[in-house]
Structure formats: structure tokens, C-alpha cells
Amino acid sequence: MKINIPNILTIFRILLTPLFIVCLFYPNIYSNLWALFIFILASITDAFDGHYARKYDQVTRHGKFLDPLADKILVSSAFISFAIMDIVPYWMVILIIFRDLFVTGLRMVMESQGLTMITSKIAKAKTTTQISVIIFILAFLGFKIFDINWLGIVYDFIIDYRVIYYFTLVATVFTILTGITYLYNNKNIIKKFISG
Q1: Is the pTM of this model over 0.85?
Q2: Among residues 165, 132, 155, which one has the least CA distance to residue 39?
Q3: Is 81 exposed, middle or buried, given 0-12, 13-18 or 19+ CB atoms closer than 10 A?
Q4: Could you tell me the mean pLDDT of each successive run of 10 residues in the chain, 196 residues long?
Q5: Does domain 5-195 match CATH 3.40.50.2030?
Q6: By C-alpha distance, which of 196, 6, 58, 50 is closest to 114?
């Protein structure tokens, strides 16, 4: 694998994931704030590595494989953790992970046959939606340690109106829709692959 700045950032994001999980489950009042900080840091590397690779012509075959894989590892780890913590339903997490693994697996199989699938802007919006929901949940977990009146009102609103549930539901539906759109946009390539 060619070692360059984008690939280093991608590997760094993968290595941050276990640390993020440890902070999320560690029994300390500040650990969820650390989890939020680590996730935001990892998300910044996600935004930066691709931009840097394109700007300075450092796009590599390994980088094209590792970057989406690092995203899936980070996002899936967060959603699985939230399900274990009973914050979001398992069925939503299963749908999100199934879609992401299916599309990633299909892309890898296609590329092994020399076929390149089209990634639309809506797929990038899907990742942004998932990351936004995760950051919202982490902020909810992290900032509840502060005893501030207006923050208590916000927390009561989030709990009473099941805001986390509905935000995650939107992310789940959007994730599935982008998967269907991805398959539709690449239907000719898929037909070519199936026909041999």
C-alpha cells in the first residue's frame, strides 16, 4: 500500500474507532464527551482525506477501498453501540448496516471484474446524515452531565418527543433509499456483470 497523507488519515480513522467505543462504554462522567470528541475528529479526517487526495492527485487503489471501509467501520460501530445501549432499535441498525455492507460488497466484486460503479452525490448525503445523527446522539449523552436549566428543558423535549428515535428513523429510511437509488443508477453495469 502506498503511504501518503490521505491513506494515513484513513488508517488513523480506523484506529480511532476502538478508542471511540471504549470511551462510549467506559463508566466515567466525562467518557461520553470524549467519545463525542473522538467521533468528530474521525469525521473531520473523513472529510479531509478524500479532498486532499483529489486536490493533490494522491488517489490510490488502496485508498479508494480503505476510505469507504473506514467510514463503514466507524458508523457501524457507533450504531451497534447505540443499539446495545438501548438508545436506538436494533432493526434500524440492521437495515443501515445491511445496506452499507451489501453496497460495499457489490462494489468490491464489480471492481474485481474491472467494472466501476457510479457513486452519486446522494450517497455522500447519506453518510452526512448518518454522521449527523450519531453526533446528535453523542452530544445528548455527553452534555447531560451539565446541570443547566435550559439544557434540562432540551433534554426533556428530546426524551418526551422521542427525537432520537425519529432522527434515526429518517437516517434509516434515507440509507435504504440511497441503496435503491445506487442499484438503479448502476443497473446497466450490474446487468453486464450478471450476463458475464
Answers
A1: yes
A2: 132
A3: buried
A4: 76 95 96 97 84 68 74 95 98 96 85 78 87 97 88 93 98 95 88 78
A5: no
A6: 196
